[in-house]
Amino acid sequence: MKKSLLVLSGVLAISAALAGCGNKSETPAANSGNAAGGAKAPVTIKVQAWYTEAQGNWNATVEAYNKLHPEVKVVYESMSEKGDSQEGMKKLDLLAASGEQMDVVMYSSASDFAQRVGAGILEPLDEYLKKDGIVVKDEYKLDPVVNGKYYALPGKMIEWFVLLNKDKLDEAKLPVPTEWTWDQYAEYAKKMTKGEGAAKQYGSYFHNWKDYALLALNNDMENPYLVKSDGTQNIDNPKVRYSLDLRNKMENVDKTSVPYFEVVSQKMAYRDVFYAGKTAMLATGNWMVGELSQNAKFKTVFAPYPKSDATAENGLTEVGADFMGVAANSKNKQAAYDFVKWYTTEGIQTQGLFFSGWKKADINKNVDAILKSGKPEQVAMIDKDSLLATLKVNKATKLVVPPTYALQQEKEYLTQVELFLTGKQDLEKTIQTAKTKIEDIRKSNAK
Q1: Count of alpha carbons within 13 angstroms of residue 428, beta-carbon side
Q2: Among 82, 222, 289, 435, which residue carries the largest CB count within 10 Å?
Q3: pLDDT digits (tens, 9 = 90+) for 267-276
C-alpha cells in the first residue's frame, strides 16, 4: 500500500507540473474552436472514466449529446475493461502525466477526487459556473467544494439504505421499518438470526469498508467522516465509540451479524452474502437497485438508514458521488465544461442506470428508468413502494471532501478497527491509537 501511494504521488506530481504548463489564461469564452477562414470546426472532447458500456450505457449518452450539439463531437473512452474504478483512475493518472488529451474526467470517491485536486489535475470551474449563474449547493444535492473552489460537479449520487429479505422478515413477523435506530436494527437482527455452523442465517452483515466502521457517524449532518472539515480527527467521538461497540456486540456477543474475521478470511462479497440468504439485512448504497433489477433472487424491501438515536432526523444518510470535472490540460475547456454541466443535470438520466445528484431530477422517473432497464422477473421482486418511500425520506449529510492524504488515514483507522473486532485490543485503545495516528498523518502532511 505504501509503495502504491508513493508511485501515485510521483505520477500526480508529474501531472501537476504538466497541468501547470497548460493555458491558464484561458477564460470560459476562449474555446472558440475556429478553423482557418473563420468558420467554426467541430470540437472533439474525450470523456474518460472506468465504466464499461454495460455498466454505463455511454453510447446512448454520447449520441444524445452529439445530437443536441452538432458543433461538438464527444468520444467516450473506458479506462478499464473490467469496469474497475481503481484501475481506471490509475490509467487517468498516467494520461495526465504523459500529456495525452484529457477533457472530461471522473473520480469515484471524495478521497480520490481530493488527491487529484491537490495534484493540479483538475481545472477550477468557478468562472464557468458564475457565467452561467449556477449556485452549486442550490442546484445539486451535495456540495463538492474544496477550499472554497469547485473542481467537479456530482454525477451519479450515492445514498445509503437497508435492504431486507422480505421472506425472512415475514417469517420473523416483523414490519418493514419506515423509521428506526441502530438499536432497533440490532433487535431485528436478533429475531432474524437462526441456525448454526455453515448453514447459519445471520440477521445482519457489515462489510470491511470504513463506512461500516462509522455507522452512527454516517448520519451526523455536520461531520459524517473520520476527520472534520478542518482536517482534525473525528474518531474521539461518542458516535464512533457507539458504532464500534454495536458491531462488537452484534458480531462477537449476540452473534447476530457475520463476524469480521469471516468477512475478511473468506473474502466475502457483500452482494453474494445477501443473494445467498446468509444475511437477512444489508446496509448498502443505492447502486444496488440497478443490480437487483438484474440479479434479485427473492422479494426485497427497503428501509431508511438507521438513526443514531430516537431524537435524530429520519433519513439522514452518508452520501457519495462520481465527481466529474474538466482536465486542467484540456485544450477545449469550455466544451468540456458544457458537457459536464449537461451530464450532471439532464444527461445522466439518459442512461437509466444511476440516481442523479441534481435537485430537479424526478425521483419517480429515475426509479422507473432503472427498473425498466432490468429483467422483468427480477424487477418483479423489488418492492417499489418501500423503495420510493425510503428514497423520498433520504436526506444527504454534508459532504466532507477530505484532505489529499485521506486514504492513508482510512487505512490506519481500519487497521485499529480490525484489531478491536478480532479481540486483540479493547475499545479505548482502539480509539486513542486511531486518533493519534490520524493526527500524526495530518501534521506530517502539513509540514
Answers
A1: 0
A2: 289
A3: 999 999 999 9
